[in-house]
Amino acid sequence: MISTVEGSLDGVRSANERPVTGFSYVYDCSSERSDAFNSEMSLYRAACDGKTDMLFVSHLHADHINGIDRLQAMAPAKTVIVPYLDVVERLLFVLSILSAVRHPDRRSTTVRAP
Q1: Tens of pLDDT along 35-59?
Q2: Which helix H or strand E contains 28, and what residues bound it?
Q3: What does R_g of the chain's alpha carbons equal in angstroms?
Q4: What is the pTM of this model?
Q5: Closest Cα partner for 13 from 23, 22, 4, 2?
Q6: Are 13 and 7 in contact (CB under 8 A)?
Q7: Is there a smaller number of Cβ atoms within 10 Å at the N or the C end of the chain?
């Protein structure tokens, strides 16, 4: 999360400052350890206000994308940045995201690049 706060005129920060604007982003969305992933998802859920401004996907290996369906069901990304994909790879990726949004009870996203 990137957020701005309105501070006092003297520049001293206080503990009760509230964010004025925020930008939420996720870089890759998965983990090989489900406990670590679940912990991070809980923290993100509390901070993101039900939306993700931008999702960056570095590459399509399972340990980088298997949590995208949960993220999309919890806090859908407005913009998704993916590495260069050919037409078939892009179609598979978009279909997996649409499926996750339409069927949030499904817990795995499988995208296989040719």
Answers
A1: 989 999 999 998 888 999 999 999 8
A2: none
A3: 17
A4: 0.65
A5: 4
A6: yes
A7: C
Q: How many CB atoms lie within 10 A of CB 40?
A: 14
Cβ atoms within 10 Å, residue 2 = 10
Cβ-based neighbour number of residue 23 at 10 Å? 11
Cβ neighbours of 54 (radius 10 Å): 14
Rounded distance between C-alpha atoms, residue 72 and residue 64, angstroms: 14
Q: Do the bridges between strand 19-23 and strand 2-5 make them parallel or antiparallel, or are there none, so unpaired?
A: antiparallel
Q: What is the mean pLDDT of the chain?
A: 80
- Token readout for 53 is 């401004």
- Unique residue bearing structure tokens 């260069």: 84
* β-strand partners of 26: 55
Look up residue 32 and give its DSSP letter. Answer: S
Query: What would the two tokens of residue 110 be?
Result: 């499988």
Which runs of consecutive H residues, i.e. helices, occur in 22-75? 34-48, 62-65, 68-74
**Token pair recorded at residue 95:** 């279909």
